[in-house]
Amino acid sequence: MGLSTIILAAGQGTRMRSNLPKVLQPLAGRPLLAHVLDCSAALAADDVCIVYGHGAEAVRNEFPDDSLRWALQAEQLGTGHAVQQAMPETPDNNRVLILFGDVPLLTSATCQRLLEETPDDDMAVLTVDMDNPTGYGRIIRERGDVRRIVEEKDAGPEEKTVCEINTGVLVCPAAKLKRWLDNLGNDNVQGEYYLTDAVAMAVNDGVTVHGIKADSYVEVMGINDKKQLAEVERALQARLVDALMKEGVGFADPARVDIRGTLKCGKDVFIDVNAVFEGNVELGDGVKIESNNLLRDTTLGARTVLHSNCHLEGATTGNNCEIGPFARLRPGAELANNVKVGNFVEIKKSTVADGSKVNHLTYIGDTEIGTKVNVGAGTITCNYDGANKYKTKIGDGAFIGSGVELVAPVEIGAGATVGAGSTITKDVEDNQLALERSRQKVVPGWKKPVKKGEG
Ligand code: UD1
Ligand code: CA
Hints:
This protein is an alpha/beta fold. Strand 8 and strand 9 (about 145-150) form a beta hairpin.
């Protein structure tokens, strides 16, 4: 039997109190819906349909994938009405798996189990026991069998004590579901067409409804407000860090790290507290990340040490580099092996070859630095004339004294030395000493100023 996955993503998410549609709220740096699509992709369904409505354009633009089918729910009249919008193009002889766009931690393994344990002609709902079931639909069983689902708002006092809840994940044959949905009413407290009412209809039609329990409530947590979003964020972070620890990555505190994208680590990587990883980050063997660092789309070579308080974006380093504390590497910063970048140094769109050092208070932009160069404290490459950017080249083994301005375009030859405090506007030949500053003078008759009235 074929499989159609229908993902409900049309709701506004009123309780989020946000201008951003709920399914676009970020979780680990990606929209909620992206996580649900990952889960669905792993199931290899032959038809994936997203029911969208609130923030229609924004939601659709976020997922340009051609293989997705979109069903518009212009008015959000309830989860049952939402599924109905997807049914006309759903093949009758498929099974349907319903997923919710606001339940993002669900694993494909659990969905797979649900599909395998449910005979093709039956219905199954994924349930879970919760210590505090408030807000969820309750699973009402009779002699162990699932009979119906009652929503929190419609539940009587006794029904409210039931701790087995509806996760929203449901599987059943498409043709029958079409019929049940066509017969849904909205005579309930919220005046909505509830998908959950299809359960009692199935029971009435003699269809067996299985209540299959998820292993833990964590993967089926629904997100309705910012508090739940934060809770699910922490749960997902714990899952990501657990996986990395299993691979051998060391963390000072697994609760104080954030991964918003993919983090690939070699052997013996150690990560101290408050590190944030965004986009694609790769850390080679033996890399050490000290406290308070942001790394976005960055690769660090083996045994590189990132000291505290650095901001790295679009940067790559070779092996054995040392960076920070308080360094900023911007897009296109490419360091080779054994490079040192110290405090209050900013490097943008520049290459730094093996063994070179840029240790203090420096801006390097649009620059090629050779091997074993020493760039002194307070050096600035003046790469911008207010309209255009120009390049600076510093040859192998050059020594740039402290407080130097290199006005681009300019080239410093290999082995050359630039004296401290110089403003260099012309190329310097290999092995030359270049100085550009006025001779120190003594001003005759100069007196130290004093405060008015004190003299
Ligand atoms: C729903 C279930 C509840 C379950 C809970 C699990 C129903 C009636 N209730 O309640 O039993 O315990 O999820 O998290 O199914 N949506 C649409 N169109 C609509 C309404 C909703 O696409 O007209 C989408 C939402 O975007 C969301 C999902 O359906 O992704 C769930 O809707 P929501 O309003 O959050 O339902 P709950 O009240 O949480
Ligand atoms: Ca919900």
